[in-house]
Amino acid sequence: MDDIRTYQMLIDGAWVDASDGGSFDSVNPSTGAVWSRVPEATEADVNRAVEAAHRAFTKGPWARMTPTERGKCLRRLGDLLADQSEGLGRTESFDTGKMLKETRWQARYIAEFFHFFAGCADKVSGETLPIDKPDMFVFTKREPLGVVAAVVPWNSQLFLVAVKIGPALAAGNTVVLKASEHASAPMLEFGKLIEAAGIPPGVVNIVTGHGEPCGRALTGHPLVARVSFTGGPNAARHVLENVKRNFAEVSLELGGKSPFIVFEDANIESAVNASIAGIFGATGQSCVAGSRLYLQEDIADDFLARMTALTRRIVIGDPLAEDTQMGPLCTRAQLETIQREVAHAQEQGATVLAGGRQPDGMGGLFYEPTIIECPRQDLRIVDTELFGPVLTVQRFKTEEQALELANDSEHGLAAGIFTQNSARSLRMANAVQAGIVWVNTYRVVSPIAEFGGVKGSGFGRESGFQAIHDYTRPKTVWVNTSDEPMANPFVMR
């Protein structure tokens, strides 16, 4: 027990335990062993964090900083993140089972998001309005909202934190970040960089705990002005109930069941590699995972022969090892869901082409990369997000049929289209119901590009310059330039 790492929360610039001493254990999914212990925040802890953020927003040095000064803090934070990418990546791999080669790269690349938003900080401006009233000078300015509650899941934590607190801080807000109860350690390690970046106490606070009471108390707190939530639809419904109490602005990113469409004229080698990356990269634990594969009939057999051959050669193992290509799932609940849904799909007539079970002789939460061919669209597995390495496959004849199948989903986060017909790629990109469309590539991100979904995948956008506007509100200022006294007070001008 002596080797279990103990963490504290970041509240008002200090590292603290839960007020009642409560904590919970975090398990390394590769080994099944407890490796760290994290505070279980009480409602009082959440209240302290929000009040600290509110003070920092209204009275502290952050409130007096110029946008350029805030930008410099974000740039330093990005630099520190890049410098510490090895250690942060290793912690994330311990806590989530994600491969070190990915977590380390991601931590280093996410620094670019903070650099991007650092540059945006002093580029936010209002407008001068050509008003239709004489003797009136009217302009708008954009002001920060206040305290932002940022709720992130365990997967892609540093990316999701960057696209939330990056624009929030650049715009002048303060933040209370709730880390996932499934993997809190990377966020707490990241919190150590906040003070080093010159960000004043209380501007960024990090609390750890479960939905009750931590998540409820945070998202419904009367001093919270905006909730930025990434997670599952059930938790999102609770968030929407909670914000009835404070009327906070809300953005939701709720995952997806993204279609990956391959036409007969596609570059098959490229499409196969992209599909493997889209569903088996990060062990399928990605909100944009291309988990519904649609193949035009003429190339389906060739495509599946190539893909299943490559899938069977994927190296499963220790996420810290450089030759590993796929690590474990993060939680036992995911594993149990996948096992249940794969079995149910077979009962409904689906055929397992590869995988479909846990690998022999391995402990932990490992599951083989799995390809399942489905005879019909109405199989439950086709539109159930499993958050794991499970790909459903169907065949189509025409472009119209492919579009119908792709859009027949509760979700609408991402889509992949593979074709060398540029006209068709544009037709499909315009018609598919998704917030992100990749053509002849997949799973690419940039701080410059907006990210978000439609339908059951939520609403609102993250990343890109527009994100700054989402963390501000416009104020309209009317200035009377006339020296004449006001006219009839009972007549609106």
From TrEMBL:
UniProt GO molecular function: oxidoreductase activity, acting on the aldehyde or oxo group of donors, NAD or NADP as acceptor
Coiled-coil ranges from the UniProt annotation: none
Keywords: Oxidoreductase
UniProt-listed Pfam families: Aldedh (PF00171)
All copies of domain Aldehyde dehydrogenase, residue ranges: 15-477
List of catalytic residues: E253
PANTHER family from the UniProt entry: ALDEHYDE DEHYDROGENASE-RELATED
Descriptive protein name: Aldehyde dehydrogenase family protein
Organism whose genome encodes this protein: Pseudooceanicola pacificus
